């Protein structure tokens, strides 16, 4: 960690039966936090477990997956201001239950959406596909899904200069060839991106 910490911004642990137990995760995450890294927990994907509670205990930026959560887990996420990162493409690919986005949002939890791109369970980089799934399967409105995919993602990374269009932000954005951002959900599988800007410059 002493060698890696200067090159990284976060530390992650997979808290799940068959991966690392809660004490092992606490040890890894605490060591990373002590070196200035932001904690993230892969939590409650396969079954109910201690991952969400550990994320709240350590003040993690995010708990990722959150497929199986109790009322106590939802309350802990809200009270500790931990972002619940939902990855519906993984659930689509594995035919697993979808995360309870509506329950989390209605309780006041900050929700983010991500692709979870990996060759095992979610081999996609398509955020429009994730947004469409969030609307169809997670009960989110199109604007809630777009918000979760942008500002929610920034919250999960604890980066205040991205995910929104305000004075002082980085100016990383896409311009869509569509009349509304709701078309990201309305036209799944269609590439609607017209222009990409990074730092305010078209690329």
Give the SSE map.
Layout: E1 10-15, H1 22-34, E2 38-43, H2 51-58, E3 62-65, H3 71-80, E4 83-86, H4 88-94, H5 101-106, E5 111-113, H6 127-137, H7 142-157, E6 173-176, H8 183-186, E7 193-198, E8 201-202
Parallel strand pairs: 1-2, 2-3, 3-4, 4-5
Antiparallel strand pairs: 6-7, 7-8
Strand order of the largest sheet: 1-2-3-4-5
Main β sheet profile:
5 strands, parallel
The helix/strand class is alpha/beta
Q: Specify the number of helices.
A: 8
Order of helices and strands: EHEHEHEHHEHHEHEE
Which percent band covers the strand fraction? Answer: 15-25%
Task: Label the overall shape.
Answer: globular
Task: Classify the helix fraction into a percent range.
Answer: 25-40%
State the distance separating the first and last CA atoms.
35 Å
Detail the poorly predicted runs.
Answer: none
Number of strands: 8
Radius of gyration: 17 Å
Mean pLDDT: 96
Could you explain how this protein is built, in words?
The chain is of the alpha/beta class and 203 residues long. Helix content is 37%, strand content 17%. The protein has 8 helices and 8 strands. The strands form 2 sheets. A 5-stranded parallel beta sheet has the order 1-2-3-4-5. Helix 1 (22-34) links the parallel strand 1 (10-15) and strand 2.
Question: What's this entry about, in short?
Answer:
The chain is an alpha/beta fold and 203 residues long. It has helices at 22-34, 51-58, 71-80, 88-94, 101-106, 127-137, 142-157, 183-186, and strands at residues 10-15, 38-43, 62-65, 83-86, 111-113, 173-176, 193-198, 201-202. The model has no long low-confidence stretch (mean pLDDT 96).
